[in-house]
Write a structure and sequence with these properties.
alpha/beta, 3-stranded parallel β-sheet, two-stranded antiparallel sheet, 5 strands, about 25% strand
């Protein structure tokens, strides 16, 4: 489909719901720039992703790949995780700004209805 095809839909929303970790996410959002007039990316994170309560020796399993990682969770590891998440989120926010997307990060344990209502304003 060509960009001219999408011109007829320029009054539409494009909402991307993601955890933000897709390796080609920047390319994907860049492709949507001309597809709609209101571009929104909502990063969905669980409370555990936002503030992990892990400690001790654990085996972590990637739910998407099935990969296993044995590690000891220390306060330093958690600090590095928080720093990485903050850095990743800021990069995602900058990419969204560059490509005309509004960016929101939400905790999935909180109601989404207020956010969705605010998107229409």
């Amino acid at each position: 489909l060509t960009p001219s095809y999408y011109e007829q839909f320029k009054s539409t929303f494009f909402i991307c719901l993601t955890d933000g970790w897709h390796p080609d996410l920047k390319s994907l959002i860049k492709e949507q720039m001309t597809m709609a007039s209101d571009l929104i990316l909502i990063q969905l994170l669980t409370p555990e992703e936002l503030s992990p309560s892990l400690s001790g020796h654990l085996e972590l399993v990637d739910s998407e790949t099935g990969d296993h990682l044995k590690m000891k969770i220390t306060p330093e590891i958690l600090d590095r995780y928080h720093h990485s998440l903050k850095h990743h989120t800021e990069n995602l926010r900058q990419d969204c700004s560059q490509f005309g997307f509004r960016f929101f990060q939400i905790d999935v344990s909180q109601p989404i209805k207020p956010l969705l209502i605010s998107l229409g304003r």
